[in-house]
Amino acid sequence: MDSLSLSGICRHQFSPITMLNFNQSNHRMEKAGFVRKPEKGGLTITQVASPLRRPVIVPSLDNETVDRRDRNHVAWTSVRQERWEGELVVQGEIPLWLEGTYLRNGPGLWHIEDYNFRHLFDGYATLVKLQFENGRLIAGHRQIESEAYKAARKNKKVCFREFSEVPKYENFMAYVGDIANLFSGASLTDNANTGVVKLGDGRVVCLTETQKGSLVIDPNSLETLGRLEYSDSLGGLIHSAHPIVTDAEFLTLLPDLVNPGYLVVRMEPGTNERKVIGRVNCRNGPAPGWVHSFPVTEHYVVVPEMPLRYCAQNLLRAEPTPLYKFEWHPESKAFLHVMCKASGKIVASVEVPLFVTFHFINAYEEEDEDGRVTAIIADCCEHNADTTILDQLRLQNLRSFNGKDDLLPDARVGRFTIPLDGSPYGKLESALEPDEHGRGMDMCSINPTKLGKKYRYAYACGAQRPCHFPNTLTKLDLLKKKAKNWHEAGAVPSEPFFVARPGATEEDDGVVISLISEKNGNGYALLLDGSTFEEIARAKLPYGLPYGLHGCWVPKE
Ligand SMILES: CC1=CC(O/C=C(C)\C=C\C2=C(C)CCCC2(C)C)OC1=O
Ligand SMILES: CC(/C=C/C=O)=C\C=C\O
Ligand SMILES: [Fe+2]
Description:
It holds the Pfam family RPE65. Helices cover about 10% and strands about 35% of the residues.
C-alpha cells in the first residue's frame, strides 16, 4: 500500500494508510502537538475520501496498542488511533437503494496511558460511520470529544465519574469535593458512549445515561459539535440511555432518585425543551429501577420498574460493587406502569415476575374483535432475572475467553402481557424457545415503521456456545417462534441494525448492517438480506475495530 500517495482515492482500495511504526511516531507527534509534516515510513496518514480529499494526520492513542492487540481480541482492545476515513473494497453487492449513513457508537478506548479501565461501559466513545452511496462504501471512525475524554487526554488520567471508573483522589479533601460535585452533576461523565440518534430536526446526538452526555455530532465528519443543552428546568442528572426517537418527537424517562419515580417527557423537533407528559411514582423499593431503555405503543408509554434499582450509596463509592451503581432488590418486586401519551394518566400498573433487561425490543396494543385495547404486549432481551450479566461485561472477563468455557449467562426474548382490565398482575413468558438462539439475547433492532405496533421480526445477537459474549446475528420470527442465526468462528458481531428498503411493504424487506470484529484482529462491515438473512455484501476495514453498542440510520437528504 502506498502510504504517502495523496492523490484521489481509488475505487476498491483502502484509502492510503500506513500502520508502520505508527505508535512510536505518533506518540512523538502527540508530544509535538500533532503538527508534523508527512514523511515517508512512520506516520499514520489517512487520506480522507471524497469530498474532503485531504490528508489527515492521525494521532495514535498510545504506545502499547500492539501489545494489547496481541493479547486480546480486537473487540475488547482500545481503538488504535483517533480517527480514520476511507473507501472500502466491497465484496458482493450493496443495493443501490441503500443511500445514507449508518452510525454506530460505543465505548472504544479503555485506557489512559498505562491505566486500564475495568468495564466495557467505561470506554471513551468511538463513533463509526458506514456511508453508502451508489453501491460504494466510505467508512470512518473518530473519537467523540466529550469533556471527559478531553480532560483524560490532557491530564493523563480519568477526571470524571464513568460507569465504574472514578477519578483517583489525591487526598481526602479532594474526595469530599468530588462528592459535592456529584450532587451538582459536575463530576459525572459526559462520555456519550452508548447510542446515537437522529432527531426529527436533523441533529444527530450521541447519548449515554447522564443528561450532560448528550453531544451533537456531524454525521459526515464525525466531529463533535457541542452539547445538547436541555433548555427546560426539569433538572435531574440521568435519563434513559435509549430515548424513543421518531421524526415527530423525542420521548424519554427521567428517573427521580429523591422521590422514587420517573418523569415521562417529550421534546419536539427544533427545540431543546422537554415537556412533562406525566409522572409515575415507584410502587416499591428505595429507589427507581434502572431504565436503560423503555418501550412505547401507539398510544402508551410503558415505564418499567425493575428490581435492579439505582443506588445512591453506590454512586458515591470510590470502588465499584459487583452491581456498580445499582442494587438488586427482589423483595421490592417488579412492576410495569402504562401511561397514556396524550393525557399523562396511568392506565395500568401491574406487578410482574422479577426481570433483568437492558433493552426493550418493542411493544404493541392487543385488541379484541371490537377494536378495544385489552392488553399491552412488551418484549425485551431478558436475562432470566439474573444480574450477573452486568459483571460479566468486565473487560477482564471478556478478554479471558479461552474458546471452551461457556461463560455467557442465559437470556431470552421476554414477553410481558399487561392486562388493561384492572387486574393487578402481568405475565412474563419466553416469546420463543431460547435454544432457538443459543440462550443468548441482546442488542436488538426492528423495522422502525413497526415501532409501537404489532410486529413479527426482530434482529438481535444470540449465542453459539460455548461463548462468553453474544456471538451470532439472529433474525427472530416471533410469529413462527423461530430464529435464523449467522455465525463466524471467533467473530464478535455488533448489534444487527435493520434498514428498511424505501417503499417496502414487507416488514423484513431491507438490509441488516453489523460491524464484525474478527479473532485475527481484522474487521469488516457486513450486510445481510433482511428477509433471507443471507450475506449480500461485506467490506474489510483496514483494521478491526473495538466492539460497539448502538447505531442509527441517517438517510441521504
Ligand atoms: C452501555 C452503557 C453505558 C453506560 O453507562 C455509562 C454511565 C456513565 C452510567 C452511569 C450511571 C448509571 C448507569 C446509573 C446512574 C448513575 C450514572 C453514574 C449516571 O451504561 C450502559 O449500559
Ligand atoms: C452489550 C450488552 C448491553 C449493552 C447495553 O447497552 C449486553 C450484552 C449481553 O448479553
Ligand atoms: Fe443499550
